[in-house]
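Progress report, Aim 2. The chain analyzed during this reporting quarter is listed below.
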Amino acid sequence: MKKFFEVAIEAAREAGAVLLAEHSRPQKISYKGDVDLVTETDKKSESLIVGRLRREFPDHRIVAEEGGTGAAAASRYEWHVDPLDGTTNFAHGYPCFAVSIGLLEDGKPLLGIVFNPVADEFFSAYRGEGAFLNGKPIRVSAIEKLATSLVATGFPASQRGEVRNIHYYWHFTLRSHGVRRDGSAALDLCSVACGRFEAFWEFGLRSWDTAAGMIIVTEAGGRVTDLNGGPYHPGGPDVLVTNGHIHDEVLKTAADIATKVAEL
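Predicted C-alpha cells for the chain:
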C-alpha cells in the first residue's frame, strides 16, 4: 500500500515540474469540442504519469482524461488521472491548475494527490491516515452557516447550452459571502479540505476531476454527496462537497433552487 502512495507522489511531482516549466510558453492548442481545449502539455503530463503507473502496476486499470488506459479491463485498483486540471487557465497563463491523481480500491477512494506547481502546494490523503498540505495536517473550516460561507462552483467546457448552474450560481451568491469560480475542480475540493471554502458544487464532472479531491476532503473531516444527499461516486452527474457543518443547509438550498428551475 505504501508503494501506491510513493509512486503517485513521485508521478505528480514529475508531471508538476513539466507544467511549471511550460506554463509561460506559447502553447499548441487543439480542441475536443467547440471550446473544450487541450494542450501539448496535457498530453506530455499524461504520458509521463500513465507510463509510470503502467510500469509499476501493470495489473491496475488507468482512466485518464486524454485517453490513457491500463492493460487491465477490470481490476480491484483503478487510477483516475487528470494530468492538467485547469487546462483553459493554463493555456491563458492564469496560474490556477494542478495535477490530480486518485486511486480507487473496489470502487472506493483509497488515496488522492493534487499538486499545484505554481503555488508549490501539494495536497495528499490516504484512507484512514488524514489529509495534508505540504506534509502538514489540514482540516475543514468550522463555519456553521451558509450565510457566512465562501463557496465555489464551476461550469463545463462542453454542453454550454446547459444553463442550469447559472441559477444555482445566482442563488448561492445571494445566500453566502460569495461564489468563486476558479476553473479547477481538483483545487476547489482541496480548498474545502483546508478551510478556504466551505462548499463546492458542480454538474457534469468526470471521474478524474474528483477521485483525488474527494478523499482529501473526507480525510480532512468534510462531506461528499450528490446534490440530493445520496452517495457520490467519481464521475456522477453532480457533486456537493462541504465542511460537513453546512451540508444539510446547502442540500436544502439546492433543492429549493431545483424547484425554482423546474418552474421556469
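The first helix runs from residue 2 to 22. The CA atoms of residues 153 and 181 lie 5 Å apart. These observations will guide the mutagenesis work planned for the next reporting period.
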